[in-house]
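Quick check before the chapter quiz. The format below is the same one you will see on the exam, so make sure you can read both the input and the output lines.
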Amino acid sequence: MSNNTQNLNDIESLSFDKDDQQLFYIDDLRLKADALRHSVLPKLQLMMNHAISKIDEIYGVDVFEDSHITKSPNFRTKRKEKLKIDYDYSLCGLEGKRVKNKWFGLERKNGKEAQIAPFKFAFDLDQNGLRASMWMNLLKLTDNTYIKYLELLESKSDVIGNFCFYSNFKFNLPSMIHSTKVNIDWMKEQKEYYHNFTSPYLSYPITSDSIKLLIDDYAIFYYLYDCYIKISKGVEIDQILWEKLHKWSTTEKPKEKLESPIIDIQKAKEAAEQKTKVMPAMRWQVFQRDDWKCVSCGRSSHDNVILNMDHILPRSKGGPDSIDNLQTLCWECNIGKSNRDDTDLRN
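Here is the expected output.
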């Protein structure tokens, strides 16, 4: 079975559970980073693959003409020094290509040519759950450059408001009391150009049905990401993609709205400070022991496979949940090993 065929089928079984949430509380920074890179990121990449297919279905565009995939964590696997970064999230999404002679709508303060667009559009997972977001990076660009994006939001505030509602995204402004225009005027005066758009969090456990709805929302919201890309390229924003979105939406059924859980940030911080040492879930211990690779075929996240924890002696035959009875298999090899097979593939 090819990786592409496997990816198209695996979305039905994709999920994030309490072990994935617990990962963000683990004190072992290296284990946390490796688990995010080798187990969580492949799932987010799978979501990204489906989102890109959905974008093509809705808009008929090749996202890789102007963008490439961005991921985090993205560190060197072979390093002598101890890992010191405490990764508290993992993301996979789109950002403008790092190239010359493309971003003619951007101006750097030093007068040199800009080679990267100042925003990202991604799926991200953290201790609160899974969401999609687009946010502005504050690079060393001129005020006039950032004002171009704000003027788009101001001039099209009604359209963008309706668009955000349909795509289930929220435009986060400094103050939700005042109008969009008042907020944007304040941002211009204070030179506070950071802003973002976020979907509601999907809280753990996160099912494949919720994930598929989030992928649809991400693909729909691509329209605004494309507007930002066009501003960055210095080209006119046309109505072609908007018309394609309208045509596609008229053939779709109304989508279920996702509710965002209310999260008290202060209480979450206090709980984190008072937490006891969190031991890694059995899954991460097994993956780490098996070097984050399928013990059957040897493939890893670098081969675009998603890892599973398998019982060597199946539970149906009395197999225990001990680490000695567990092994790492990719989804394909795990499907091929039935519950009647008690082969220890590590040997």
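If your answer matched, good. The chain has two domains: 3-265, 282-336.
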